[in-house]
Amino acid sequence: MRKAELPDHLKGVAFALRTSDKAGVTRTRTRAKDLVPVSRGIRVPLSAQPSGADALRAYTDVDDASILALCSAARMIGIPVPAPQEGDWRIHLARRRGFAAPRRTNVAGHRLTLTPDEVMEYDGARLTTPARTWLDLASMRNSVDDLVVAGDYLVNSHGEDFPFPRESICRIQELRDMIDRHPGLRGIRKAREALELIRVGADSVPESRMRLALITAGLPEPVLNFVVRGDSGLPVLWPDAAYPDHRISLQYDGEHHAREDQYQRDIVRAEVAARYGWHEVRISKNDLRGDRQGVVGKVRSALAYRAQSALRAGRGAGH
Hints:
This protein has eleven helices and 13 strands. The chain is of the alpha+beta class. The model has no long low-confidence stretch (mean pLDDT 92).
């Protein structure tokens, strides 16, 4: 007998039996061999490879108390998952205090103290809000730097002077308020330490780690979201980070900079920087390996060079 076709909204996604019941799909159909039971009350079409909300939505549909949290919420929001959790693809599912922690296949169950405004709906799934997700990451085996990277991602924004303006996912004050709301939460001291290092303007994980490496080495903290303006007052350069007093721009060259089109744009950018008296320091992923002495050495040398140049210029003006 030919199998009944699934409704369009159930094709290619993981779905809860509660959802298929509402769509009029019979339980006999959900037991067919073309549907895989990945967890109790959840099916995935054999031909499907769902990801993101399409893979996780069913875990909050399966009962009204379940909420995606920690790493699973972070992945949904786009927060960079810290290195210790990169290989953890379990589904982190939580219920509020007073309920039993979720227990099912491939699920890490949690019980969390959550207020109503710490839960949101995103693409049809219930999960902890960005600020609460960030705070919960502090309870896991993560470093302060990991939390700074995650926080930088959430608060990053660029104004209208940038080629690609961007609004933050949440503000630093929201992270501070979340900390104040849960003073006894596990990892709270780590979260407080990280909060003091989070800045607006880092576009990527390497840019955040570059800044942290410089701070740890005792070098001045570079400025983010700095715009270099030309003689007309219009923007001409947008450094990843900058030392305006020294006219030093820091540019992180990710893998996409190896492309011919990007390579040519990088050449033009360096020429523009030189034309306006800025010294460009290009940072690669190799400079951020290990103890990150590569980036520290490059920036320290650039600062020393600019300081010596300024000193020579001052002496020359005095004659």
